[in-house]
């Protein structure tokens, strides 16, 4: 009940066409479409630049498994060092 019905939208559309004319509305629509197209192009141009900078790095990316293995090795070394210290005491 509180919403706009299809008939109300049609009446508004007819009034807008009468006020601005079809030629003006067509140019506004094409300008809006060109703006959206330019915006999308600019957004897609930024993405390859980010990918290129990440590929320029000298180091290789470590996977989560590699990082966990490194952490486990470090923990094992510290535990061995603690055992060695206790044995000397």
UniProtKB/TrEMBL annotation:
TM helices/strands, residue ranges: 6-22
Subcellular location per UniProt equals: Cell membrane
Region annotated Disordered sits at 41-89
- Give Gene Ontology CC terms: TAT protein transport complex
Give the keywords, sorted: Cell inner membrane, Cell membrane, Membrane, Protein transport, Translocation, Transmembrane, Transmembrane helix, Transport
Q: Please, which domain of life does this record's source organism belong to?
A: Bacteria
- An annotated GO BP: protein transport by the Tat complex
What topology in the membrane does the UniProt record assign? Answer: Single-pass membrane protein
On assembly, the entry states: The Tat system comprises two distinct complexes: a TatABC complex, containing multiple copies of TatA, TatB and TatC subunits, and a separate TatA complex, containing only TatA subunits. Substrates initially bind to the TatABC complex, which probably triggers association of the separate TatA complex to form the active translocon.
Q: Which family does it belong to?
A: Belongs to the TatA/E family.
Q: Could you tell me which PANTHER family the record lists for this protein? A: SEC-INDEPENDENT PROTEIN TRANSLOCASE PROTEIN TATA
Put simply, this protein is called Sec-independent protein translocase protein TatA
Native organism is: Shigella dysenteriae
What gene makes this protein?
A: tatA
């Amino acid at each position: 009940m509180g919403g706009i019905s299809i008939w109300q939208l049609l009446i508004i559309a007819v009034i807008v066409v009468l006020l601005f004319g079809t030629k003006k509305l067509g140019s506004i629509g094409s300008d809006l479409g060109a703006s959206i197209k330019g915006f999308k192009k600019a957004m897609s141009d930024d993405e390859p630049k980010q990918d290129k900078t990440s590929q320029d790095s000298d180091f290789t990316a470590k996977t989560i498994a590699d990082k966990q293995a490194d952490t486990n090795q470090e923990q094992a070394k510290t535990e061995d060092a603690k055992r060695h210290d206790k044995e000397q005491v």
